[in-house]
Amino acid sequence: MNMATWRLLSPNGPVNILCTRKLATIKSGPKLKHDVEKTILPQKPKKPLNAYLLYFQSIKSKWQQEHPDIKYIELVKKISQEWTKVDLTIKQQLQKQHEDEFAIYKQKLDAYNNSLTKEQRILIIDELKKKKNTSEKNQTKKKLMELGKPKRPLSAYFIFMMNKKADKDSTISQKEWVKNISNEWNNMTTKDKDKYYTEAKQLQEKYNSELKKWVEDMIKSGHSDLLNSHHLLNSLDTKSKRNDSVNKHKE
Q: Which domain of life is it from (predicted)?
């Protein structure tokens, strides 16, 4: 479901208006679909910080003032080290603060869940499914990379851009530089672009060959289900048929 979200302020606090362009999961008729499209979701209560994060927030500003050049990742390490030395009494106080805030959060969350209408619940469920699908796709992609899946090659334009990167003027912004590179590419003749297209074609052919071999190895090692979930088998089959068609046409 494609969804756009706008944050608005109301007299009772911020609300989310979820405006849906397509409600693929809703099958309860046009009336419900119309109601869902106009649904307003109340602001969901935020989980309170745990004891460590309460401590982190309490001293972060002080650390940044005393060490203005410190990188954030280094700041996190330093505060984490400090946390191990914090007096047990202070830790217990912070834990008590967390528990008190969590009890209030639980009450607000129950009230929030009980206040939701049928249309609001449909939107929330649909959004959770969307996030779950995205998460599963990312996990599959990560797993494929861990198994040695070849990386897609650069296009002709990006090969041209990478060749120009060494000569980048440090006085101009990245955005301006990309704009200049794009204009330069668009103004180049086909003949000037040929060498980049040739290189891109060679890299693509190498990638296709490596990918085919890798897929064959994955099938032998019992990873067909992982390949199917990422549509790699269908993709290779389509490429193979397309290449056969091109070769027959040339003959």
A: Eukaryota
Q: Which phi and psi (to 5°) does residue 42 adopt?
A: -70, 155
Question: What integer best gives the mean pLDDT of the chain?
Answer: 78
Identify the residue with better confidence: 245 or 140: 140
The domains of the chain are located at 39-116, 156-236
| Number of residues that this document lists for the chain | 251
- In which band, very low, low, confident or very high, does the pLDDT at 6 lie, cut at 50, 70 and 90? very low
39-116 and 156-236 share one fold:
yes
Among candidate residues 139, 142, 154, 149, the one with its CA nearest the CA of residue 235: 149
In the CATH scheme, what architecture does the domain 156-236 have? Orthogonal Bundle (1.10)
| Main-chain phi, psi angles of 83, to 5 degrees | -60, -35
Question: Yes or no: is domain 39-116 CATH 1.10.10.10?
Answer: no
- Tell how strand 40-42 and strand 3-10 pair up: unpaired
